[in-house]
């Protein structure tokens, strides 16, 4: 039940900033298109498959850091809410 409350609050926070969602979607799409264009026309040889694996790794690394930095930014802005709700025992810290 605690997890559901935290997810719901997070979902409402996302809905309050539709521009941010659009910017992240646009950024992810542009990075995917750029990486796709760089590796367009790869042959299915050993070198080509390694290049495709490199493109997948590059895309996943970009997505990981993009989400990690977004989490860091949100955590610093939501810290007062987190402290208030944890002290009032609305939910535990490990939720």
From TrEMBL:
The keyword Protein transport does not apply. It is found in: Membrane. The chain crosses the membrane at residues 21-40, 52-75. InterPro entries: ABC2_TM, ABCG_transporters. It is a multi-pass membrane protein. Residues 2-92 form the ABC-2 type transporter transmembrane domain. Keywords: Membrane, Transmembrane, Transmembrane helix, Transport. Pfam families: ABC2_membrane (PF01061). One of its GO terms (cellular component) is cytoplasmic vesicle membrane. One of its GO terms (molecular function) is ABC-type transporter activity. This is White eye protein. It comes from Bactrocera passiflorae. The lineage of its organism: Eukaryota, Metazoa, Ecdysozoa, Arthropoda, Hexapoda.
């Amino acid at each position: 039940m605690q997890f559901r409350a935290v997810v719901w609050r997070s979902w409402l926070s996302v809905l309050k900033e539709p521009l941010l969602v659009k910017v992240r979607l646009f950024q992810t799409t542009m990075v995917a298109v750029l990486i796709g264009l760089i590796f367009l026309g790869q042959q299915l040889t050993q070198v080509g498959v390694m290049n495709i694996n490199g493109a997948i790794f590059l895309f996943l690394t970009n997505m990981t850091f993009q989400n990690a930095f977004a989490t860091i930014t949100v955590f610093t802005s939501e810290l007062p809410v987190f402290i208030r709700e944890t002290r009032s025992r609305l939910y535990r810290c490990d939720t």
